[in-house]
Amino acid sequence: MKTLYLDTFSGISGDMLLGLLIDLGLQARQLEEGLKGLPLSGWRLRIGRESRHGLGGTRVEVLCDPGQPQRHWKEIDTMLADSDLPQTVRDTARRIFRRLGEAEAKVHGCDIDQVHFHEVGAVDAIIDICGAALGLSLLGIEQLICAPLPLSRGFVTTAHGRMPLPAPATAELLTGHPVCDADSGYELVTPTGAAIAVTLARFGSLPPMRLDRVGCGVGGRDLADRPNLLRGFLGHSQNSDPQRDQVAVLESHLDDGNPEWLGHLMDQLLAAGALDVAFSPLQMKKNRPATAVRILARPEQADALAQQLLRQSSAGGVRIDLQRRLKLRREAGRVATPWGEVAVKLFFDGDRLLRVTPEFEDCRQLAERHQIDLPEVYRAVERAADGLFPRKEQE
């Protein structure tokens, strides 16, 4: 499996990723020609070799003509949907921008359609995101893995004024993902870089692989304490199956807790990154009715969630096990109904689509907004999703 591992010791940005892909063998002419499929003018790429702390790599800059407009998320999404980019690239870029739009909407307290993209909505960010989707496709990357992302302290100047680092949208995007302290006062992880990483990569350590090539994408700032590079290891992974991983299982039995706390406990655990939380009834010693708490989590989050369970419940101890997990590959999608779009989860066995599952909250909101029965919305989603399954040729 062709695998690219992102070594993010100096963070990640869209332009650094583009530089890395070219350094790993992506033809710059192919990238530029492919990006001409965007209905977008007034930009060009400047590509060259630069070094940081004596280490060389490829620097990519998106140069824009003055007077470029700011855009709402919907404008960008429509632009991408109507572009001449390859279908898979178009869909990937739209997923990244939607992730970015949802993060911006949450931190600014508005609907995604009202999100005004300033820095991230500028031409350079559109090119960065579409270029990353196109470049990964052209290189044939089958698996993208990212190291924990380093978060900085300090402030950055944005169109909304001075903001704390990490930028609020970056922090929102990285919720539930592994991060570390950058020990830096400069912005190392941009919202665009974070959106690409959380949408396309899984986070983890370098897998066993046959290493074919090492490359570096160069960042614009020359940092005093580290080479400002995004390093990538490109190779073919050995004994790697993206549908297998490990999950931490946390368990505790509560026979003396206040049941009114349990709903709040579940909300807090999920907000802290738990993959799932479940309660089940128990009959314990002295015939006491009790509750079993079972939490599924990423292994690196197990200790923090266990501490939270001990603090916010009557638990006196937590059992933690690591278990192997076989899972279906999943992707996010959207389907159109007569009342609006609904987010869905697409479940694949390899490349074969097995099922499409509607997101409950989207369905509930449509049902309430249009005063229709919830099952009717689900049936409409199922009819729309039917077109996503490949058709067998008639004999």
TrEMBL record:
Assigned keywords, A-Z: Lyase, Nickel
Gene Ontology MF terms in the entry: lyase activity; nickel cation binding
| Superkingdom of origin organism | Bacteria
As for family, the record states: Belongs to the LarC family.
Pfam families documented for this protein: Ni_insertion
Q: Look up keyword Acetylation and say if it applies.
A: no
Can you say what this protein is called? Putative nickel insertion protein
Q: Does the keyword Lyase apply?
A: yes
